[in-house]
Every structure is written in structure tokens, then in C-alpha cells.
Design goal:
Elements lengths: L2 H10 L7 E5 L3 H4 L8 H5 L8 E4 L1 H7 L8 E4 L1 E2 L12 E2 L3 H6 L4 E6 L6 H17 L4 E5 L9 H13 L4 E5 L4 H6 L5 E4 L6 H13 L4 E4 L1 H4 L4 H14 L3 H9 L4
Bound molecules: ribulose-5-phosphate.
């Protein structure tokens, strides 16, 4: 692995403990003005002090984020379908590698849909992007999105994660499922979990804790943070689980803490 690739990976995954709190706010690329992100900058700015890496789209980065921030960016580079269209997540490349470099991305994110009718298109799209990104030392985070008909279990997540890693992804993002250690054990690159739909805060914290205990190196969480009743305290609580090995109970106390 070359110096640039290692350096970018160490911006995304903190070398002090090998973990990361990624804040995912890329939902607009297929969901439009997602609840909580209507004024994306107003939501994101107070969360940045507790964010190791910000994952978002090209447009959101340019339109809402101050270029002086000191938080590395993982840029969403796949897309092309919407939540109201007929083929959700049948994605292709939507940002060139040149623009990712121009935007000083530390990494890029590409979704694949293993097991779906169009898995080949999404997988070949990702592998082409990996070839281009590797030319410039940019890591690719594979988002193993889950199709409607796919079973969300350790068998499927292991299969999708391992395929992504074998095809060259540098980090894999997947969903937490029971027996998650099987997913992590069979995936040779670091694994982070998405948060999924908004759950009660206690449950989301328990899920983050269970994922870390099972070997995930962090979270790439969105709605369970920015749709929380207290997004700042929620990201602080998630950060405590990821970086301070807080238990779900301790983390929930962080979430409940009153402003001093
Ligand atoms: C969509 C994504 C989102 O970033 C991902 O779903 C994370 O957000 P959330 O925690 O809200 O699920 O990659 O494909």
C-alpha cells in the first residue's frame, strides 16, 4: 500500500485506536431533503467536534460545508436512482475521480447490491472506481446496501462484505445483524456499520456497542444521530462507545446529560 493511501486511511480511521465515528449525511442523493437534513449545515456543524469523518455528496459538500473544516471527507460517488424510482440502488458512478480529488476527498463511497438483479452493474461500477481511485491512492468504502428481497442475516452480510473486500474495497460498510462477529471474521478489511432507520436512542447505542464488541472498527451512522431528539448528545454517546469503550448504559448517560 502506498504512502498516500495509508495517509488517507489514517485520516478516516484514527490511528490512536484504529476506530472511527463517521457521520453519514449523504441521504439526499436518493431520498431528497431527508428529515433532519433540510438545512444540512445547521445540523452538521454542531456535530463536527465529535465526528472523525464526514460522509456526504459532492453537492452537499460544496453547498453546505465550510471548506476550512478539519474533518476528512468520504465522498459518495455512486448514485443515479431515487427512493421513488423503479430501481432503487441500481447505482452507477456519479462523480469522477478528478472531482473527488479536487474536493480533497480522503476516501470515496460506492454502493453495491449483491444478490439483486443488477448486482453485476453495481459491482463492476465499484471495481472500475477502485481501479481509478487506487491510481491516486484514494481508499474506497464499499456500501453493501441490502435489496428488498435479501435476508438481513450474518450469512448475507458476510457474503456481501467478503465479495466487496475481495474485489478491492478498502473499508466495508454493512448493517449490524446477530452473530456479527462472523461478518467481521470473514472480512479481511475494516468493517463499519450503518445505523439504518431511526430507533430509540438506547437501542441504537446498544447496536453500536454490540457491533464494536463483535469487531467492527466503528460506525458510519446517519439517521440515528441526526434524527435523534438530541443529535449532539447522541453523537457524543456514540463517540464514547467507539473511542472510550463505554457500555450502552454509560453511553446513554452521555446522551441524557444536561447542557452545562
Ligand atoms: C445509503 C448510505 C447511508 O449513508 C447509510 O444508510 C447510513 O445512514 P443511516 O445510518 O441513516 O442508515 O450509505 O446507502
Amino acid at each position: 500500500m502506498d504512502w498516500g493511501m495509508k495517509n488517507r486511511l489514517s485520516r478516516i480511521i484514527k490511528p490512536k485506536d484504529g476506530r472511527t465515528v463517521m457521520l453519514a449525511v449523504d441521504h439526499g442523493y436518493f431520498m431528497g431533503p431527508t428529515s433532519g437534513l433540510e438545512q444540512l449545515n445547521c445540523m452538521v456543524n454542531p456535530l463536527l467536534p465529535y465526528t472523525d469523518t464526514l460522509m456526504l455528496t459532492r453537492g452537499a459538500l460544496r453547498d453546505y460545508i465550510n471548506p476550512t473544516i478539519d474533518v476528512p471527507i468520504v465522498l459518495r460517488v455512486s448514485g443515479g436512482t431515487s427512493i421513488i424510482g423503479p430501481r432503487l440502488l441500481h447505482e452507477g458512478t456519479v462523480v469522477s475521480i478528478e472531482d473527488a480529488i479536487r474536493l480533497n476527498a480522503s476516501g470515496v463511497a460506492y454502493s453495491i447490491l449483491v444478490g439483486a438483479e443488477f448486482e453485476r452493474d453495481t459491482i463492476l461500477g465499484m471495481t472500475q472506481y477502485i481501479d481509478e481511485a487506487e491510481r491516486y491512492g484514494i481508499p474506497v468504502l464499499a456500501v453493501t446496501a441490502v435489496g428488498k428481497d435479501m435476508k438481513r442475516d450474518a450469512r448475507y452480510m458476510s457474503l456481501a462484505s467478503r465479495i466487496a473486500a475481495e474485489l478491492g474495497a478498502h473499508i466495508v460498510k454493512t448493517y449490524y445483524v446477530p452473530e456479527f462477529e462472523k461478518v467481521v471474521e470473514s472480512c479481511p478489511v475494516p468493517v463499519v456499520i450503518a445505523g439504518g432507520k431511526k430507533q430509540p436512542e438506547e437501542e441504537a447505542l446498544q447496536m453500536a456497542y454490540d457491533a464494536i464488541q463483535a469487531g467492527a472498527i466503528g460506525v458510519d451512522m446517519g439517521r440515528n444521530i441526526f434524527q435523534s431528539t438530541n443529535p449532539v448528545n447522541m453523537i457524543k454517546a456514540v463517540n464514547a462507545i467507539v473511542h472510550k469503550n463505554a457500555t450502552p448504559k454509560e453511553a446513554y448517560q452521555v446522551f441524557k446529560a444536561k447542557k452545562k
